[in-house]
Amino acid sequence: MIIKSAEFITSATKPSQYPPAKLPEIAFAGRSNVGKSSLINTLVNRKHLVKTSSTPGRTQLINFFNINETMVFVDLPGYGYARVPQAVRKKWGPMIEAFLSKRKTLKGVVVILDVRRTPKTEDLDLIRWLDYYDIASILIITKADKLSKNKQLKQQAAILQALAVDKQDAVLFSAKTRLGRDAVWKAILNLLENNSLS
Ligand code: GTP
Ligand code: MG
To answer: What crossing angle do the helices spanning 86-102 and 121-132 adopt, rounded to 10°?
Structure first.
């Protein structure tokens, strides 16, 4: 994928603050600190388009980015981080659910998991939500560089089993080595194409 432009549009917490719904959108969701923002930066070949942080829970707003004037990437705030204040955590559910249920231009969600961790309740809840709202999704298993090749494969199998999905439905990725970047783009373009009429 050739990236001609990648621009921050706006941040929002509620539908009235979303940018005009004109371009097809792909959202990125996953646990706090899993690497959502880093994945977006890798996809668009920018180190700092999206702020990344070693402190979990950094992204607390829905951030919209215009990519090539043809699609919008939506960086969703992460879930499941205990040290985020209770008041912030309580807002997460309604904020995300409003986006997932109301956004007509949303073509699919990239669900991101850490290769070292077995999916937890919140991950399963997210996947159930997507099913419930009939939103197409792809699964990315990131931070692959943190494990040996052998352990990557073992963990990938364990994660897919916990989620009851097939191997071909997931992409192993690393923002550090850029492993899987092309495969993620392919899957995203596929989401955009398959949902172009809806
Ligand atoms: P929140 O916005 O807080 O929910 O986090 P996030 O999911 O956007 O994660 P972010 O991209 O900010 O990354 C969190 C930390 O993980 C940062 O220190 C990144 O440098 C690191 N990280 C992200 N992806 C990778 C990866 O593939 N490999 C390695 N080794 N580190 C990564
Ligand atoms: Mg982030």
So the answer is: 30
